[in-house]
Amino acid sequence: MAESTRPISTDGSIQESQRICLTGDDGSTCIPITSNNVEIVASQDSGINSKARGSNKVKIQPVAKYDWEHKYYYGRLIAVSNSFLAYAIRGANNHAMIRVLSLDFSERSLLKGFTGAVTDLAFAHLDSSLLGCVDEAGNLVVWQLTLTGSKILDQIVVHIQRPEDTPLNSHRRLIWCPFIMDESDENQDDISQTLALLHEDMAEVWDLEVLRANNSSWPVDATELKEGLITVKGHTQRVSEGALSPDGTVLATASHDGYIKFWQIYIEGGQDMPRCLHELRPHGGRPLSCLLFCDNHKRQDPEVPFWRFLITGADQNQELKMWCTVSWTCLQTI
């Protein structure tokens, strides 16, 4: 294949156009698309007078194929950072695994050791190398991924294990606290140390810094942990969505009973029962399918809470609402 670019004029502006000339060779490698305007030219072998054997069909060769079951997934199957792509797969004997790919090199690694399926996985933020995961038994694992000599190394930094008789549940979710980087911060993963897990009608908020300070080896039994954890209970039905405020002091939980509850969180003080600050029924009692704080993290007004604006969704996000949590009024419905 050959390619070239030339400027073309659209509405008076000059844009680069890319021209790709096919060679007629099925074994050719792919050509990256570098322009909004691309012209693909057939090979000489495709001429009407050509005696070359060929086909007018487009040929597709899968690089990798994973057939996820066609159903509604409450958690994420794929997590992406600026360096890695991770996705949940089922291996031999239905054992769940996570495949990690490097976006810069053709390196791959495999994360194992789950009970049941992987229900949710997420990087702490786009620049983070911390990958968190929760499985059907509620086990929490956080890996530190590093690329050394084009090889992916995975180190477990937190592993919370549930008792063996814990019932499997596909609705468990993992929510990281939003990341706010100051210009003085050098190690970006030091800030992302709070996450929440959602289990049926309850939630847990974990402080990874406290867990790592108090434990030197993993896994650790969840029933033995006394510090670094707050349990939140107060919904009558399953908790479907959650969001942590950027300063980590408020957890919002959305339930299938149609309510959102806002909880005050202070992990350092060993708080037993988080206080419910407010409850909201945003979509007429319909189950929530989306919950998101959307404040400007870089320009916070000290006079208002750090979780002033909220987006909620219902009916698989066919209805969205924007809320102000100071006046508790709906600003817009989509």
Automatic annotation (TrEMBL):
Localization (cell): Cytoplasm, P-body
Stretches forming WD repeats: 232-265
Top-rank lineage group of the source organism: Eukaryota
SUPFAM superfamilies given in the database record: WD40 repeat-like
Keywords assigned by UniProt, alphabetized: Cytoplasm, Repeat, WD repeat
Keyword hit for Amino-acid biosynthesis: no
Enhancer of mRNA-decapping protein 4 WD40 repeat region domain boundaries: 54-334
InterPro entries linked: EDC4-like, EDC4_WD40, WD40/YVTN_repeat-like_dom_sf, WD40_repeat_dom_sf, WD40_rpt
Matches recorded under Gene3D superfamilies: YVTN repeat-like/Quinoprotein amine dehydrogenase (2.130.10.10)
Protein family membership: Belongs to the WD repeat EDC4 family.
Name of protein: Enhancer of mRNA-decapping protein 4
Organism: Characodon lateralis
Source lineage: Eukaryota, Metazoa, Chordata, Craniata, Vertebrata
